[in-house]
Amino acid sequence: MQNRWNDQAASEHSVDKNTGLRVYTSQLLGQDPDLVLHGGGNTSVKGELTDVFGNSEQVLFVKGSGWDLKTIEARGLPPVKLDYLQKLGDLDSLSDSEMMRQLRLALLDPTAPTPSVEAILHALIPHKYVDHSHADAVVTISNTANGSEILRELYGDEVLILPYVMPGFILARQVAAATRTVDWENLRGMVLLHHGIFTFDDDARISYENMIELVSRAEDYLSKTGAADKVAQLEYQSTAKDCLQLSQLRVNASHLLGVPALLRLDCSGPAAGFAGLANCDELITRGPLTPDHTIHTKAFAAVLDDDPATGLQEFVDGYQAYYSRHANQEHSCLDPVPRYSVWRDRGMVYLGTSLKRLQIVQDITGHTLKAIQQAEALGGWQALPRAELFAVEYWELEQAKLKSSQSRAEFEGKITLVTGAASGIGKACVKDLLERGSVVVALDISSDIGELFQTAAVLGLQCDVTNSAAIQAAIEQAVLHFGGLDMLVSNAGNFPTSQSLEALEDDNWNKSLDLNLSSHMRLIRASLPYLKNGIDPSVVIIGSKNVPAPGPGAAAYSAAKAGLTQLARVAALELGESGIRVNTVHPNAVYDTAIWTEDVLEKRARHYGLSVAEYKTANVLKTEVTAADVARVVGLLAGTELSKTTGAQIPIDGGNNRVI
User: Fold this and answer.
1) Which of 89, 104, 115, 398 could hold 119 in an S-S bridge, CB 3.0 to 4.6 Å?
2) Catalytic-labelled residue, pool 414, 427, 545, 561
3) Statement to judge: residues 205 and 276 lie in one domain
4) Domain boundary among 160, 195, 224
């Protein structure tokens, strides 16, 4: 476990006497995924505030709901009355809902986030700094039959080892009862089996370094026993059939969820290695690394074989039985859809109702697979019983975290492929689709496409769309990464050198037809199996004003775009029975693209005796048409607002006299 403490950085943070070092060491913990994943863990510091009347009050600054330790700031540590929390800890009982109400009442800042459910426990620990993590190594050891004995041998009297109980008030009371006769000065930490580890001290650095040192002991134990090396590695090369089955699995899961979802097939060495274990199905269904993960991953995984649809249905049936077995009248069944699955002999499949949720599931699962195999090497992976996992999954406080972020963007969970995405209209379409919530597969012949969009929501792939094999490979990679394909924006093209018919060269003609017409056919053809498994599937073709109003010297371009428009009309006729809409947009005079440099614009404007501004607005509406304008219409056609429209052709040209 790496000690990330830096004296210079600590000195810069210590300017804020109350929370400066607390913010610093919280961020240090959050930087290590083996300690903290996606909002897990919590920290606190005890300090002092003076109110408007000049009265001083003892305060607990504790991690607030919705904050991640990796990026936490001072405002993510709401101030709570310390004595109020300590009095709450003396109560014999306190319901979860009443506890949260009391935590809000104890806040000294009414605009602050709700304090952590562990706030009472932090208040009861008589040290200034308290750190809590779900350290993989510690929890892995505790998830074995002899875990508590091993941990006691590792830590001796320095660490209090406690059995698992529900977080919140119950845990606070457990710790209070267990420490009545304990000398806190002799303790460096506490381990909560199946849950995590606490460390504490009156010095921020010592509390942090206690965490690093104690977790390192657990890691060293895993290494010395050989358990750390017991992580299977295999190679698996996905197939076109895998991709098609994945897209069908995604649409089936989305229908069960009632919203579009994203899927990902992970065939990396650890994922394929786990999927290749003879008992992978039995291991993956025993339970999560820590019950806190159930809010993201559910209490167990699905098992998929050659027919993933069957595995999905088996999970649904199993989940409903699990719910019936443990639920009471106060519960309402959550969706019965798995968030992670082992696809036997292939790899792991992750599901999320958004990209953020997908990434969380993938991260948690990666740590879980490693922990399962290490625990097996120590005598057997032993997660909590289903009844206790159910209690956390359906805990009203955990569900509140999800309900607080239920609003969805228009295209949340949807997948769009855009060609010619590195510049001009294609780039504008990518940006517009991202703003609407879609993830985007951005194809372009440019080698820079992979780094152009600095977001995980875009998969940038270099692809020559005149090459059928390259198109097929790119689409399969897209499906493996996001789970399918819903919307296709076929945009790639160029305007060839202007030549009259008499001077038209075969190469110029053929290249234009290949890129501006044939490549679109190849793209649509390769996309169709996945679009048929898409959600509200649609295709938008980028045509040209030259279709209704061609110009001299543009035969190669105009003929190709006219053919493309005809292709789109045929596609609309053929694909309608599959629910796939196909529409075409015809832009004109879009000047904010790479080919229209200031020099070119000035020359063209002079040719017509116009200023650049007049040249840009030489249309009926006297307005400039931008790539973003085109992208907005593309988004409108791709989405469901025009769900009854197919085979349409829409100009985006400010009104062209010749077209009208």
Assistant:
1) 115
2) 561
3) no
4) 224
Spell out the residues 6+ positions from residue 250 whose beta carbon is closer than 8 angstroms to its own: 261, 262, 263, 351, 483, 484, 533
| Token pair recorded at residue 91 | 């109560």
Of 358, 375, 401, which one is at a domain's C-terminal end?
401
Q: What is the pLDDT of residues 246-277, one digit of tens each?
A: 999 999 999 999 999 999 999 999 999 999 99
**Order of all β-strands in the sheet with 196-201:** 79-81, 56-62, 42-50, 129-133, 196-201, 189-192, 159-162
- pLDDT confidence tier of residue 206, bands split at 50, 70 and 90: very high
31 and 148 inside one domain: yes
pLDDT tens-digit readout, 436-483: 999 999 999 999 999 999 999 999 999 999 999 999 999 999 999 999
Judge contact between 439 and 409, C-beta under 8 A: no
Q: At what angle do helices 308-326 and 386-393 cross, to 10 degrees?
A: 90
CB hemisphere CA count around 359 (13 angstroms): 9
Active-site residue, 557 included: yes
What is the CATH classification number for the domain harbouring 433?
A: 3.40.50.720
Q: Is the pLDDT of residue 122 over 60?
A: yes
Residue type for position 430:
V
Give the model's pLDDT for residue 39.
Answer: 81
CA-based torsion, 503, 508, 509, 510: positive or negative: positive
CB 409 within 8 A of CB 175: no
- Confirm if 415 and 262 have CB atoms less than 8 A apart: yes
Q: Do residues 201 and 264 both lie within one domain?
A: no
Predicted local confidence at residue 604, as pLDDT: 82
Determine whether 561 is an active site residue.
yes
Are 515 and 436 in the same domain? yes
Arithmetic mean of pLDDT, 161-165 = 96
In a domain, 501, yes or no: no
- Backbone torsions φ then ψ of 269, nearest 5 degrees: -55, -50
Q: Are residues 325 and 472 in the same domain?
A: no
Condensed to tens digits (0 to 9), the pLDDT of residues 15-44 reads 888 999 999 999 999 999 999 988 889 999
- What is the per-residue pLDDT across 366-389, written as a single tens digit (0 to 9) for each? 999 999 999 999 999 999 999 999
Q: How far apart are CA 558 and CA 548, in angstroms?
A: 9
Claim: this prediction has a pTM higher than 0.85: yes
Domain range for 363 is 240-401
Q: Which of 557, 591, 608, 616 is catalytic?
A: 557
Query: 423 and 536: one domain?
Result: yes
168 and 252: one domain? Answer: no
